[in-house]
Amino acid sequence: MHDDHNHGQGGHEYGPEHHPVQADAPSVEPQIALMEQALRELLLKKGIFTTGELHRSIERMEALDGAILGKKVVARAWNDPEYRSLLLDDGPRAIAEFGASLGLPEFRVVENAPTIHNVIVCTLCSCYPRGLLGLPPSWYKSKEYRSRVVREPRSVLEEFGLALPPEVEIRVHDSTADLRFMVLPMRPVEAAHLDEEALAEIVTRDSLIGVGLPLGSQ
Ligand code: FE
């Protein structure tokens, strides 16, 4: 058993100068970050909104579960073996069947199995398949998660309430600006009778990142 970390696969090709390494920094180009800062300061100065309102608004957005497309994709893969194969072979094409595009050079779906559990991270910043999962949760962007999940994935998952048996190998996938991952969790045995729509309901965002399991999993 080993905790496989495929750091460097694909590589952060933009390099540090375009992809700054800052503690908990969002993954945005410096120019965009500067424009956002200027606009935010102007709106605060003009009294359009207060800092408190801004923070509450961000908290609301973070609390919204934006993983709607990701859930639908997983539910279809559970229900349709052909779609599952497509999703694992060619993620972008499988997403295109829902009329969506992530607009990324590479998108890969990694499948959990009885002895393999996948978890995603972006060690450099916060690369995340937003088109499928919505806004990344703040812990995903935290320096602590980014560094620790690579070194001690089993302990980090336990802190999320996910205690995996020792025989389960944990594979940590490091996302980059060009390459994003999504986990295809295992379908809970109890969910065998559910249709696609009901299946989508039991898929959680955290199960698509790999720090949780679908509802009803044992
Ligand atoms: Fe990143």
Describe the protein's architecture and organization.
The chain is an alpha/beta fold. 44% of the residues lie in helices and 12% in strands. The protein has helices spanning 15-18, 30-45, 51-63, 68-79, 81-89, 91-96, 130-133, 138-141, 143-151, 153-159, 196-202, 205-209; strands at 4-5, 106-111, 116-121, 169-174, 179-184. The strands form two sheets. The chain has a three-stranded parallel β-sheet with strand order 1-4-3, with helices on one face. The protein has a two-stranded parallel ribbon with strand order 2-5. Helix 4 crosses helix 5 and helix 4 (68-79) packs across helix 11. The two termini are 22 Å apart. The relative contact order is 0.20. Bound molecules: fe (iii) ion. Fe (iii) ion binds next to loops.
Rg to the nearest angstrom? 18 Å
The total beta strand count reads: 5
Shape: globular
Structural class: alpha/beta
Low-confidence stretches: 1-26
Write the H/E string, N to C: EHHHHHHEEHHHHEEHH
Major sheet: arrangement of strands: 1-4-3
User: What count of domains describes the coordinates?
Assistant: 1
How many helices? The count is 12
Strand content: 5-15%
Major β-sheet profile: 3 strands, parallel
Specify the CATH homologous superfamily: Nitrile hydratase alpha /Thiocyanate hydrolase gamma
> How is the CATH topology named?
Nitrile Hydratase, Chain A
CATH class: Alpha Beta
Mean pLDDT: 85
The bound ligands are: fe (iii) ion
> Could you say what the CATH architecture is?
Alpha-Beta Complex
Which key phrases capture this entry?
12 helices; single chain; three-stranded parallel sheet; Nitrile Hydratase, Chain A; 12% strand; disordered N terminus; binds fe (iii) ion; 218 residues; alpha/beta; two-stranded parallel ribbon; 44% helix
